[in-house]
Sequence to fold (530 residues):
Amino acid sequence: MQERETDLLVVGSGIAGCAAALAAARRGDEVTLATKASRPEDSTSYWAQGGVAVARGDPETFKQDILKAGAGAADPEAVDVLVSAADGAVRDVFVETLDVDFDGGSEPATQSRRASGYGDEAFDYGREAAHSEARILHVDASTGRHLLAPFLSHLADHDRVEILEDTAALELVTHEGRVHGAILERDGERAPCVAGATVLATGGVGSCYRRSTNPATATGDGIAMAALAGADVADMEYVQFHPTAFAGGEGGQGTFLLSEAVRGEGALLRNGDRERFMPDYHADAELAPRDVVARAVKQERERTGEVRLDVSSSEARRRSEELGSSGVSPLDFESEFPDLYAECERRGVDPADGIPVAPAEHFLCGGIDVDTEGRASLDRLFAAGECARTGVHGANRLASTSLLESLVWGLRAGEAAAGHDPEPVEAPDLLDRDPAMPDGFAEEKFVRLRRVMDDYVGIRRTPDDLRRAAGVLRRLKGEVDAYTRTRTSRSLYELRNAAVTALLVARAAAENDRSRGCHHLEEGATVDAD
Ligand code: SIN
Fold:
């Protein structure tokens, strides 16, 4: 692998990384986008279902919904940035640059949308939990892939962007507090990529839990690299669990997300006694905040053996008519959610019998601490997307704001990071003296790590469990560190990254005795804001 120089190094190929690359290339930078993915499917953005929330010309109402979901911990200035930029950024990139055909319009309507922007009724705006109005643009319920695939093709054709697939970043190159790129690895070979600035857009931490809606590539790489280089991280305790992933095996095998949009269209949650239980937990029932629904689903699974998503009963159809958000009421699961229907069929589940669901790790609200332009605490280091803590989500994220945040912060980070020339610097030489690893080492450690995170740092937490988890994870990280001193295999670095991020989550959770949003303490809390 060749040593290289570039104006901007972007690590990660989800919506945030693509947006950063686009913005910097528009400013005239030569951009290198390195991604360990070899297919778009390996990125969490590709898996996003619900859609992209927009303000529809009413940023204030959107802002209030985000602040409420964040349980008092979101940063109002960051939320202002998001809601003010939302309509323009979506129009610029998704509609005008990538020509994404969001659901809901005939060709003439699409033309008028292009001319008028948002606020008209031509789109089929979806509604999801804790949104006070229908404002979610979507393509079926598989929006992510319809955004990411054209974005990657657009960048692949861009003459100022080079995409390096199947290329992982192992360590940041730093010198006197400034970041100068990263050590990249492909096919077992390593070389520095020296950059004027670096944007991390590596996604979340799903691999730290057994059941997650993220792809297996979500090993916290950017967060771990940044933290190890000395960058600040924040809000790491706020790990969001989605209430309705396909239950799959107890080890999380075969799971997939059943979008909140399905409940937005009227689907109901029933326990093992076939009873609808959410009205007993919250006035907004199935559309209560995500953390409330996730805890209720967990509790009902424990109490009655299972929870199913009812997409076809007459009660669900009545609820669908009451909500009436899609204009396709009553709920018709097969035609409105064809990809989810197909996933159920693939697993031999007839949705008419109810779809077995369980909560799954979904999104990390915290991450690398950045300002409103994606700037981290180290010079020339930026972050965007799930690996960044922008302050937008506080203690809990409002549905369908992650693609939007990735887009807005990706663009802002790319713009702010552009215009720096690479400076010659000596990159660290990573040792690879003894490439042999004990058989099954990484797998065994991952199993242990996930067990600790599920059992002690999950949906319901106690101070004792969190302290215990931090201790176990510290020892586990020590065992992994002993190997990373002399070996550089990608799988070992992914394990190292997962161990570092898991430890950051556990420590932050153990240090925060205030129960709110998705950091839910069962005992020992000073305040419970739910
Ligand atoms: C979903 O489709 O339920 C997920 C949307 C999100 O997490 O924003």
In short: The chain has 17 helices and 16 strands. Confidence is low (pLDDT under 50) at residues 106-116. The CA atoms of residues 62 and 332 lie 28 Å apart.
